[in-house]
């Protein structure tokens, strides 16, 4: 008995030390655990410990019905077989690779195919200009009146009625009339639009190199996607690709900078929001089972005090005119290169309490430990900026990193107690150099302790993904434990709607519609072997 208890204690204490959390924070009392365990029964103790652990994990408290249980058996057979095969060969476990190296292999995965069919609820973190696929974006370059210019080896693409003289603009359709030139320019355009490369670990061996290429992609298509007709069509396509991937609601970040017409006329943020809302309404009309979309106003974080003040004025006006369509506010861009949130804290505190914040906070590297201030500022803003409506759960943290939330137990516990959702974008974290192997992703601890987590896709077009399924695959296969099953996936989908900006009534309606899709999904999966 003593030996079994000591062995079990060693494991439990090890867990407490590693996670820097008292056992009680797991909802597990050591005395209760030992009291419930039969004397001299090591295997019973082990079984009880594993059961307690599973109950504390994401979705652990959900009960599966008969059909869900059958579906879960099929899912877990596929998952465990893939894990087994990956480790047996020693070097073929896909989440251990850079995502851009193994896209075709992931698409062949049985687990991925199941996840693609699964109703995933909502996307809460995606950027408007980087959702629709690379293929769709490249096809946009065949539209009329698109000109190309090579400026210091960087391509610029812009629509004109009559081109300006600020660059040596050439009509792209004319350039393509020559087959040799067409091949060369097409290859250059494709390279400018994606981070996908043959050896990403070598090409982007530092965070700064990854971000440099990342930023260049957005610069390459900036004027392509800000042409008003393309802007409208792109938003519809964004929703279409999410819908086709079994996503039923989206909160999309947009800088709302400006768009232009062929004659050079420009439109600001108010007109842009009006267009986005009209397109969203049209999409919902065309697809009645799609719940809708909202916009998070998200200008760049490399701003001075005056510019941030202008941002907040714009935000207030947009929320006034479009109260149900503007979800809230964020500041975007590489956190290490931008300003601390604390620098804008006083100005942020002047915003109406009803307007939610959804800040990028905690994407810090060890060389910049002060990025912890972004987390502290975010939580302080949450505490002092509580909306007046009941049941507020509209604060989100963006895809944090290993050097942030999970290394600060007090802040982590505060996030849990306040019900603040942590937006995790696994592929983005990896591609932008924050984690190499998904098995080392810090979200593993959040999943293990059933913290409020949602999975999102950030900028899928940039790294060759499409929709949300690829990020679900990396999270389910690479970040979660091997034991995480259908309950974890179900909880993620529920979380995505529960922590959305939808009203409580809208959430109930959305969950009802999602449940219909979920039941159909598990019924189909349960009969997979038949």
UniProtKB/TrEMBL annotation:
In terms of domain of life, where is this protein from? Eukaryota
**Per its UniProt record, what InterPro entries does this chain match?**
A_deaminase_dom, A_deaminase_N, ADGF, Ado/ade_deaminase, Metal_Hydrolase
Query: What is this enzyme's catalytic activity, as reactions?
Result: adenosine + H2O + H(+) = inosine + NH4(+)
Q: What is its EC number?
A: 3.5.4.4
The cofactor named in the record is: Zn(2+)
Organism, by scientific name, is Temnothorax longispinosus
Could you name the Gene Ontology cellular component terms for this entry?
Answer: extracellular space
Where found, per UniProt?
Secreted
Residue ranges of domain Adenosine deaminase in the record: 206-509
Q: Which residues form a coiled coil?
A: none
Per the database record, which ranges form the Adenosine/AMP deaminase N-terminal domain? 34-115
Can you name this protein?
adenosine deaminase
Cross-referenced NCBIfam families, in alphabetical order? adm_rel
Keyword set for this entry? Answer: Hydrolase, Metal-binding, Secreted, Signal
GO BP terms: adenosine catabolic process; inosine biosynthetic process
């Amino acid at each position: 008995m003593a030996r079994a208890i000591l062995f079990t204690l060693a494991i439990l204490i090890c867990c407490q030390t590693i996670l820097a959390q008292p056992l009680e924070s797991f909802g597990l009392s050591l005395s209760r655990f030992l009291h419930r365990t039969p004397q001299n029964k090591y295997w019973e103790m082990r079984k009880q410990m594993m059961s307690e652990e599973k109950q504390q994990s994401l979705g652990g408290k959900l009960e599966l019905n008969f059909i869900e249980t059958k579906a879960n058996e099929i899912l877990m057979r596929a998952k465990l077989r893939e894990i087994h095969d990956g480790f047996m060969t020693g070097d073929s476990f896909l989440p251990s690779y850079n995502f851009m190296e193994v896209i075709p292999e992931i698409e062949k995965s049985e687990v991925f195919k199941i996840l693609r069919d699964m109703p995933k609820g909502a996307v809460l973190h995606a950027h408007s200009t980087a959702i629709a696929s690379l293929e769709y974006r490249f096809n946009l370059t065949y539209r009329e009146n698109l000109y190309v210019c090579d400026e210091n080896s960087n391509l610029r693409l812009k629509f004109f009625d009559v081109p300006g003289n600020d660059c040596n603009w050439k009509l792209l359709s004319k350039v393509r009339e020559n087959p040799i030139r067409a091949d060369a320019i097409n290859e250059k355009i494709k390279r400018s639009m994606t981070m996908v490369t043959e050896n990403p670990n070598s090409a982007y061996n530092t965070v700064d190199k990854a971000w440099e290429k990342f930023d260049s992609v957005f610069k390459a298509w900036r004027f392509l996607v800000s042409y008003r007709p393309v802007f409208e069509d792109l938003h519809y396509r964004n929703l279409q690709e999410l819908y086709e991937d079994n996503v039923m609601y989206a909160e999309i970040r947009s800088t709302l900078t400006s768009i232009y017409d062929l004659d050079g006329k420009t439109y600001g943020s108010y007109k842009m929001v009006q267009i986005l809302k009209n397109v969203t309404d049209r999409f919902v009309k065309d697809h009645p089972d799609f719940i809708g979309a909202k916009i998070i106003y998200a200008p760049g974080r490399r701003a001075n005090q005056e510019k941030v003040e202008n941002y907040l004025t714009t935000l207030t006006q947009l929320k006034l005119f479009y109260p149900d369509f503007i979800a809230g506010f964020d500041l975007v861009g590489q956190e290490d290169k931008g300003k601390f949130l604390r620098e804008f804290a006083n100005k942020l505190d002047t915003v109406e309490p009803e307007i939610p914040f959804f800040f990028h906070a905690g994407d810090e590297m060890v060389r910049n430990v002060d990025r912890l201030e972004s987390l502290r500022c975010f939580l302080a803003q949450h505490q002092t900026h509580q909306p007046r409506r009941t049941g507020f759960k509209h604060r989100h943290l963006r895809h944090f990193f290993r050097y942030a939330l999970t290394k600060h137990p007090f802040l982590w516990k505060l996030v849990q107690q306040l019900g603040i959702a942590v937006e995790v974008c696994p592929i983005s974290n990896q591609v932008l150099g924050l984690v190499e192997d998904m098995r080392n992703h810090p979200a593993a601890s959040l999943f293990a302790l059933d913290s409020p987590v949602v999975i999102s896709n950030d900028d899928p077009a940039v790294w060759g993904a499409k929709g949300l399924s690829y990020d679900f695959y990396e999270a389910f296969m690479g970040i979660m434990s091997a034991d995480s099953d259908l309950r974890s996936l179900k909880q993620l989908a529920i979380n995505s709607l529960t922590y959305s900006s939808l009203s409580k009534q809208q959430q109930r309606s959305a969950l009802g519609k999602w449940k219909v899709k979920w039941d159909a999904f598990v019924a189909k999966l349960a009969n997979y072997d038949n």
